[in-house]
Amino acid sequence: MPRLPERIVLDQIIGRALEEDLASGDVTTAALIPPHLAARARIVPKQSGILAGVQVAARVFQQLDPLIDFQPMLLDGDRVEGGESVALVSGSLATILTGERTALNFMQRMSGIATMTDSYVRAVAGTGAAIADTRKTAPGLRALDKYSVAVGGGRNHRFNLGDGVLIKDNHIAALQDEGFTLSQIIKRAKASAPHTVKIEIEVESVDAAEAAIAAGADIVMLDNMSAQDMRVAAKLAKGRCLTEASGGVTLDNVREIAETGVDIVSIGALTHSVQALDISLDISDEVN
Q: What average pLDDT does range 87-91 have in this prediction?
């Protein structure tokens, strides 16, 4: 099971979210709910999917009030059905109401990412290809977005720009204007970058893929290429470097892409176009 960010990082993310929602306090709860009232609530998805963010929701309530009792009934990575209880939250009713939206926002987005990733992973089962994310994450939430992809069975691409060299079309165009060939660009990167990082380059044709493989790229990204061309490029790269398919990937075509023999299929939509899982918090009738 993947690990959540370190506690200090997680608390900073949650703290910013609570500050955003409580910049002027919770005037509704303050006006209506006596501080002594205690209650119990259930967190319940309205649709099926893969859970992620259960402990993040727990930390939201516990940051507001350490005395809140959060009892998970399911864990991240579990498949949940609509109407099934995910967790019980007990304690100050005011705290539960104040933290409700922030806790659910995290869980809904994270579970949506995990659920979508799981759909892609199941779609390519048996092909040998891995499903990976990109850096197209919500600003400030990358650690949680990528954690959620891993919960759904996917792999994480670079977390930041320092994790590896990725030579994209704009890098190539700028250097080609200076007279560099594709092979020279790769060799320049290999000579200049730290020896501990891999060199990946984006290509749009079989000829460019062949040149990148010959120049010693560690990973060749096949960008928006046809399945036929990807199949040729994957065969050329076999045993020499990894191939990554990217661009225009959907659930309808991901298996066809995976069956070309590529090693990785990267999908920005896992995090930039996620549909949140619909999750609610229901207060029990027992308020005292």
A: 97
